[in-house]
Automatic annotation (TrEMBL):
Originating organism: Virgibacillus profundi
CDD domains reported for this sequence: TPP_E1_PDC_ADC_BCADC
Keywords: Oxidoreductase, Pyruvate, Thiamine pyrophosphate
Oligomeric and partner information: Heterodimer of an alpha and a beta chain.
Catalytic activity: N(6)-[(R)-lipoyl]-L-lysyl-[protein] + pyruvate + H(+) = N(6)-[(R)-S(8)-acetyldihydrolipoyl]-L-lysyl-[protein] + CO2
Cofactor(s) listed: thiamine diphosphate
A biological-process GO annotation: branched-chain amino acid catabolic process
Top-rank lineage group of the source organism: Bacteria
Molecular functions (GO terms): pyruvate dehydrogenase (acetyl-transferring) activity
UniProt entry tagged with the keyword Oxidoreductase: yes
Function of the protein: The pyruvate dehydrogenase complex catalyzes the overall conversion of pyruvate to acetyl-CoA and CO(2). It contains multiple copies of three enzymatic components: pyruvate dehydrogenase (E1), dihydrolipoamide acetyltransferase (E2) and lipoamide dehydrogenase (E3).
Residue ranges of every copy of the Dehydrogenase E1 component domain listed in the record: 42-332
Entry protein name: Pyruvate dehydrogenase E1 component subunit alpha
Length: 360
């Protein structure tokens, strides 16, 4: 049995295209992207890093509510989202707001979500997504269901969902991948392995050597990818999408990544569970630094271009937070109206009461 386990584990070597120096190490798997696409990937990573920095500052000023930092995870989040089509369906976790933004969620709505305003959960018509899930792993089961629905309707689309390394210990994780495998549903399951579930290191989470190998028991494809390498993440997600829409079933993708910030802005202190050495080891793998080097080598990126993106991001964020402030405050009656299609009679009474109060 030990031999069986070892032979499975040896198949899950990390897939990479760009190394830490921004050099291509795997020419054969280089995805087919135009120069414009390559620049767009960089633009989005720079923009998202600024959005993260500003969101942390706004949270500290009391102008945002719940916020889970994203710096370090840009390649994992944006490389996978870039492989999607507009009609694909995203089932995100709480850290996956950037994917929604690049799929078309306006910034002010992302800020309203952070503030707990119901309008932050109302996806625009062109954004097919659920709101970011706080319950760990719950979206994995939902993704299997959404994907099966697509298959039954004969759609050429996929459902993509995200969880973390910690999420793979939940029962829902196994149920989701198993169900999708059984029905060969067009689902893409991403595990962003940022090494920690709040303060618990992945080594304490499981005895499995990789999280990707969990696909084997479900009888589906699984792959571990360098989550700091946006080209590699894009390539494996695109491949998973192609196979899914061709009826070849779901894929589990483990992205090896790191979050530089705290778990959320609610007050955990990463210095109590991570060492400086560990932080700096991962900062050397930074997805922006690596991709910038690659693009500069191709004369596709410059400091001026980067500064332009930074200014654009700051400007957009300033406007969006103003829009957020100006958006009507949510009322108790709004919450009741959004929760039920038909109000039960006891709530109908309360609704009248609140309407009366709110009209004053
Ligand atoms: C079912 C459930 N159990 C516990 C929690 C509390 N909780 C919130 S985040 C978290 C850690 C999740 O870590 P991971 O899956 O690695 O995702 P990351 O935050 O690192 O992206 C836990 C235990 C929860 N939200 N839901
Ligand atoms: Mg984690």
């Amino acid at each position: 049995m030990k031999y069986v386990l070892e032979s499975v584990e040896s198949q899950f070597e990390m897939f990479q295209i760009l190394n830490e120096d921004g050099k291509i190490v795997n020419k054969d798997d280089m995805p087919d992207l135009s120069d414009e696409d390559l620049k767009e990937l960089m633009r989005r990573m720079v923009y998202t890093r600024i959005l993260d920095q500003r969101s942390i500052a706004l949270n500290r000023q009391g102008r945002l509510g719940f916020y889970a930092p994203t710096a370090g995870q840009e390649a994992s989040q944006l490389g996978s989202q870039f492989a999607l089509e507009q009609d694909d369906f995203i089932l995100p976790g709480y850290r996956d707001v950037p994917q929604l933004i690049w799929q078309g969620l306006p910034l002010y709505q992302a800020f309203l979500f952070s503030r707990g305003h119901y309008h932050g959960n109302q996806m625009p018509e062109n954004v097919r997504a659920l709101s970011p899930q706080i319950i760990i792993g719950a979206q994995y089961v939902q993704a299997a269901g959404v994907a099966l629905g697509m298959k039954k309707r004969g759609k050429k689309t996929v459902a993509i969902t995200y969880t973390g390394d910690g999420g793979t210990s939940q029962g829902d994780f196994y149920e989701g991948i198993n169900f999708a495998g059984a029905y060969q549903a067009p689902a893409i399951f991403i595990v962003q392995n940022n090494r920690f579930a709040i303060s618990v290191p992945v080594e304490k989470q499981t005895n499995a050597k990789t999280l990707a190998q969990k696909a084997v028991a479900a009888g589906i494809e699984g792959i571990q990818v360098d989550g700091m390498d946006i080209l590699a993440v894009y390539a494996v997600t695109k491949d998973a999408r192609n196979r899914a829409v061709n009826g070849e079933g779901p894929t589990l993708i483990e992205t090896m990544t790191y979050r530089y910030g705290p778990h959320t802005m609610a007050g955990d202190d990463p210095t109590r569970y991570r060492t400086d050495d560990q932080d700096s080891e991962w900062e050397k793998k930074d997805p922006l630094v690596r991709f910038r080097k690659f693009l500069e080598g191709k004369k596709l990126w410059s400091e001026e271009e980067e500064n332009k993106v930074i200014e654009e991001a700051k400007d957009d964020i300033k406007k969006a937070i103003k829009e957020t402030d100006a958006y009507p405050k949510q009322k108790v009656t709004d919450l009741m109206e959004n929760m039920f299609e038909e109000l039960p009679s006891n709530l109908q009474e309360q609704m009248e009461e609140y309407k009366e109060k709110e009209s004053k």
